[in-house]
Amino acid sequence: MTAIFRTTGLTKVYGGLTAVSNVDLELARSDLVGLIGPNGAGKTTCFNLITGADAPTSGRIVFRDEDVTGVRDFQMARRGVARTFQNIRLWRQMNVLDNVRTVCRVEERYGFAASVLRLPRFGRGERAITGKATHLLQRLGLGDVLGENATDLPYGDQRKLEIARALALDPELLLLDEPAAGMNPTEKTQLMDTIRQLRDEFGLTILLIDHDMKFVMGICERIYVLDHGERIAHGTPDEIRRDPKVIEAYLGGDS
Amino acid sequence: MSGELLWWLNLLVAVGMYTLLAVSLNLINGYAAMFHLGHHGFWALGAYAAAWLTIHWQGSMPGPLLYAVSLLFAMLVAAVGGLAIGVPCLRLRGDYLAIATLGFGEIVRIAIQNSPPDALGGSLGLFIPRVLMKVTRDTKDDFRLLTLAIVAFLCVVVILAFRNFIRSAPGRRLLAVAQDETAAGLLGINPTNSKVLAFVMGSAVAGLAGGVYAHYEGKITPLDFNFMEMVKMFLVIVLGGMGSLSGCVIGAFLVIGTERMLTRAPGFISDWWQVEFPLVLALMIVFRPQGLLGRREVIDLFRRRRAPA
Cα(A46)–Cα(A35) distance, rounded to whole angstroms? Predict the structure, then answer.
């Protein structure tokens, strides 16, 4: 198995607090891997380091055989690392379609002059962008609400919209931060199917964070467990379920 | 031409100029959500650039051509100023950005005021030769009418250009950065690029307004570009609606119209205009804080429930 993505010794220190300590992660192409741990274990910090939102204190990040440690967020996104957010971060004053169109990258690019002067290139580019965005939104079942204000959608649909928006980047690595939060059990089951299908359809490699163990165990092929910023376990859902260290981290042991 | 008509003509030219200033300020403060308080500095840069070029190049080309060239030069100088100020300042946010840009606006004015008189006229200002057309006693009104036509044309061009920009991929990226910069960055948008572009576009158009102003007045002094002017521009966009281009036209009418009506009103009304003017505006802010149009455009008012309020 060749890794498409790997971190070695990933560490982030904020003042006196070590949020992430020496974490090694490895993902092969089309992996579907979970990242779990109690509150404050450093999961979202890991995502921030991987996506370039924050620079690691030490350690290396390798994506597609390239050292991308310290590469800035928008450059990571353009290289094919996309994410959704734990606390939904849609652009509130845009409608559903525009939330996705803003991110869409298409071959028919046009610049400032073409926009202002409405050159033919603008028309071609906009058609391509709108076509791609509409296709993605339909794929996620949001084809009927293109004109709605993004934040008027039900919570679950907002999460789907965030996924559609991330897919507009044509990512290879997709990071989902609590995609099932706030969904009911039926929606969660549907989301599991959707995520698996999207992975196959778009050739994605997925790393996801969630607190719902049933959801994570049900969908992930492998799981990494963090506690106090350290990686304490790694394995298949069955192995993780039985791992005494994991049980202790979640339930608290008397040490 | 009668005095009454003249008054209206002057008012309309001023409204046009403030529309240009407000539209460009709105791109930065309304659409890009940057708290920028130095727009009068870019206005001054444009006015002085146009004046300087006209004085030094006078006679080297036909008058109307020089007029046009000086306006382009004004835009260029103000845009370069915008770039020079924008790049270091745009790391700042909110109040801090406001303080930095306000400082810039005042520095421009004070620097010109203290410049050697033979360069930029110092505190005495500069006289700008009439190049657009020959202005005599008889043709004064034609000159005013022609300027009004030019200003109106520029307003239409600038508003259309900005509208086209906002409804395009680079414009959407700017709105995304304004609404949630973190999300924009993580979704492949370079926030600095978007902000600098908005800042440069805005300052260029403020420079254009400066050029028009210099040619219309025929004389400019540093005091023309004081902070009160910045306040007026800000009021125009607050009144018209932050994030509404056509709202700027209405706002400019209201602010400049109210100011001039009050100053020429009889007796105590004009004596107290500096009290009444802010009072009108304060009431406006209390009862309609989003401005007259909010984020809508005039055209949306005639469509049936399409634009979200």
Answer: 9
| Contact residues, chain B, for A51 at CB < 8 Å | 186
Residue B168 has its nearest CB partner, among A72, A83, A115, at: A115
All structural domains of chain A, each given as residue ranges with its CATH number in brackets, are 3-80+170-251 (3.40.50.300)
Nearest to A115 among B170, B180, B191 (CB): B170
pLDDT tens digit string along A39-94?
888 999 999 999 999 999 999 999 999 999 989 999 999 999 999 998 899 999 89
Q: For residues A147 and A94, give the distance between their C-alpha atoms in angstroms, rounded to a whole number.
A: 9
The ipTM is 0.90
**Where do the domains of chain B lie, and which CATH numbers do they carry?**
3-302 (1.10.3470)
Window 146-185 of B: residues touching A by CB (8 A cutoff) are 161, 164-165, 168-173, 175-176, 179-180, 182-185
Q: Which residues, in sequence order, are CB contacts of A17 under 8 Å at separation 6+? A: none
Q: What is the pTM of this model?
A: 0.89
Look at strands A17-28 and A32-36 and give their pairing: unpaired
Q: Do A74 and B190 touch (CB under 8 A)?
A: yes
Measured between CA atoms, how close is A235 to chain B, in angstroms? 29
In B, which residues are within 8 Å of A92 by CB distance? 179-180
On whether the CB atoms of residues B232 and B277 are closer than 8 A, the answer is no
pLDDT tens-digit map of A134-165: 999 999 999 999 999 998 998 889 999 999 99
Is B255 exposed, middle or buried (CB count within 10 Å of its CB: 0-12, 13-18, 19+)?
Answer: buried
- Closest-CA residue of A relative to B192 is A74
Nearest residue in chain B measured CA to CA from A122 = B168
Long-range pairs, B111-117, Cβ under 8 A, ≥24:
B112/B44, B112/B48, B112/B222, B113/B222, B113/B223
